[in-house]
């Protein structure tokens, strides 16, 4: 049956891609970090964590059947920021990176000290949370931003890749 205009009008509001919040519930321990409000304001894109399913095949006398396997909830997300002239984002990345591995000494902190507890919230039209993704993650990669060029009016957008072992996802 083809949907009618009345069917479509009867659906709830559609979720949008640009209404969301980034919240650092717990920043990495002992690392100078901007406030959650400063990070949220400067974060221009975020990937959503996802689980990856596996399967395995059973072959019996020449016949093959596939079965669902384990769902892996580990992975990585990328947060892209817009930098301002006070270098809040690049300083944050440098501090976190140096805590992971001090370049000159080789000293690093424990995993528990390097983990941040992060929430991504998708919002409705009234900016109320409708879905939440919560994860414990550590810095695993970064880019300092785009290449410097001779002309153009683009903003400087550093990004970080955060690795997590598992995440929680729920409707609010």
Could you please describe the fold and organization of this structure?
By secondary structure, the protein is an alpha+beta fold. It has one domain (16-171): Pnp Oxidase, Chain A, CATH 2.30.110. It has four helices and eight strands, in the order αβαββββααβββ. It has helices at 5-9, 36-42, 88-100, 111-114; strands spanning 20-26, 43-46, 52-60, 63-72, 75-81, 116-123, 129-143, 159-171. It is globular, with a radius of gyration of 21 Å. The mean pLDDT is 92.
Concise summary:
With 172 residues, the protein is an alpha+beta fold. Helix content is 17%, strand content 42%. A six-stranded antiparallel sheet has the order 1-6-7-8-5-2. A two-stranded antiparallel ribbon has the order 3-4.
Keywords:
Pnp Oxidase, Chain A; 42% strand; 4 helices; two-stranded antiparallel sheet; 172 residues; alpha+beta; six-stranded antiparallel sheet
Helix and strand topology:
Blueprint: H1 5-9, E1 20-26, H2 36-42, E2 43-46, E3 52-60, E4 63-72, E5 75-81, H3 88-100, H4 111-114, E6 116-123, E7 129-143, E8 159-171
Antiparallel strand pairs: 1-6, 2-5, 3-4, 5-8, 6-7, 7-8
């Amino acid at each position: 049956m083809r949907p009618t205009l009345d069917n479509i009008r009867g659906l709830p509001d559609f979720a949008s891609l640009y209404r969301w919040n980034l919240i650092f519930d717990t920043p990495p321990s002992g690392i100078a970090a901007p406030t959650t409000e400063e990070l949220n304001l400067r974060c221009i894109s975020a990937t959503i964590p996802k689980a990856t399913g596996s399967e395995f095949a059973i072959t019996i006398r020449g016949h093959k059947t596939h079965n669902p396997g384990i769902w892996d909830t580990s992975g990585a997300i990328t947060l892209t920021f817009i930098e301002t002239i006070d270098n809040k984002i690049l300083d944050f990345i440098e501090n976190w990176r140096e805590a992971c591995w001090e370049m000159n000494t080789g000293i690093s902190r424990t995993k528990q000290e390097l983990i941040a507890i992060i929430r991504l919230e998708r919002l409705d039209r009234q900016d109320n949370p409708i879905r939440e993704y919560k994860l414990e993650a550590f810095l695993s990669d970064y880019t300092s931003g785009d290449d410097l060029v001779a002309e153009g009016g683009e903003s400087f957008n550093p990004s970080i890749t955060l690795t997590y072992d598992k995440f929680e996802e729920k409707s609010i």
